[in-house]
Design brief:
The protein is of the alpha/beta class. The protein has one domain: Rossmann fold (3-Layer(aba) Sandwich), CATH 3.40.50.620. It is built from 7 helices and 6 strands. Helix 2 links the parallel strand 1 and strand 2. It starts with 14 loop residues before the first helix and ends with a helix. About 3% of the residues have low confidence.
Length: 252
């Protein structure tokens, strides 16, 4: 099967139509990847209404807030679905922390991106090798780096499907209220974007949705590398750090 089916819906298709098409087309070769934020939970709700067999994937980075684990149990109980929890490679984390410390993400953008790479990007990419397509909860309005997001695209040889690309925050809220979709507890504490515990905080009124992610950084994209990468100069530094850690891990 090609990464993106020739019968793929157009960009004007609704989220419901795209999710239904994805499940029908890719079946058990489709992954729903979520961290249980608002958008991801909308995708979970849409998919679970169509099939209880949807494969839901989430990352346990080793630094998640306890409320995210509560969401895993809430989703299992509400929808009767299995959730596949993916973890980083222990030897790689041991090498990274030994070389740069447990809180390396505060030191520089390259070190923060390196941490994201080993805790998120590498384990997810490894897991996605089992699939032909994956669903994400990305929206164009979330940040400048996501403004040109396509609903269906090809990435690393598989289809990347973002059914909510053209939704607003208000659309997400309206759906959540209408269908009583479970909410991550940290939203009630002022969070508007939720990742690892040390790297997320509540936002202030008027701040960008992702302002609470890596809030100590300024003038850089608020991205972990799962969907978008840093600029070329930063990425070159990250590449060196990654290779050093991998060499150390392999030598252990």
């Amino acid at each position: 099967m090609s990464a993106v089916s020739s019968a793929a819906p157009s960009d004007s298709a609704t989220a419901e139509q795209i999710v239904s098409w994805a499940i029908d087309t890719y079946k058990d070769r489709l992954a729903l990847v979520t961290s249980f934020q608002y958008e991801g939970m909308v995708i979970v709700d849409l998919a679970a209404r169509i099939s209880k067999d949807i494969r839901i994937i989430t990352l346990d980075t080793g630094r998640l807030p306890p409320e995210t684990f509560d969401m895993i149990e809430a989703v299992r109980a509400r929808y009767g679905v299995a959730i596949e929890v993916v973890s980083p490679e222990a030897s790689e984390l041991e090498s990274m922390v030994s070389r740069h410390g447990p809180n390396l993400f505060y030191e520089s953008v390259p070190l923060r991106t390196t941490c994201c790479h080993f805790r998120k990007v590498r384990p997810l990419n490894k897991k996605l090798s089992e699939f032909d397509a994956w669903l994400t909860g990305l929206r164009r309005a979330q940040s400048e780096t996501r403004e040109d997001l396509a609903k269906i695209s090809q990435e690393n040889g598989r289809a990347k499907i973002s059914p909510l690309a053209d939704w607003t925050r208000e659309d997400v809220e309206a759906y959540t209220v209408r269908y009583d979709v479970p909410r991550h507890p940290l939203y009630a504490k002022g969070y508007t974007s939720i990742g690892c515990a040390p790297c997320s905080r509540a936002t202030e009124p008027g701040e960008d949705e992702r302002a609470g992610r890596w809030w100590w950084e300024s003038g850089v994209a608020k991205e972990c590398g799962l969907h978008f990468t840093p600029d070329g100069r930063a990425m070159r530094t990250v590449d060196v750090l990654i290779h050093e850690i991998l060499d150390s891990s392999n030598a252990a």
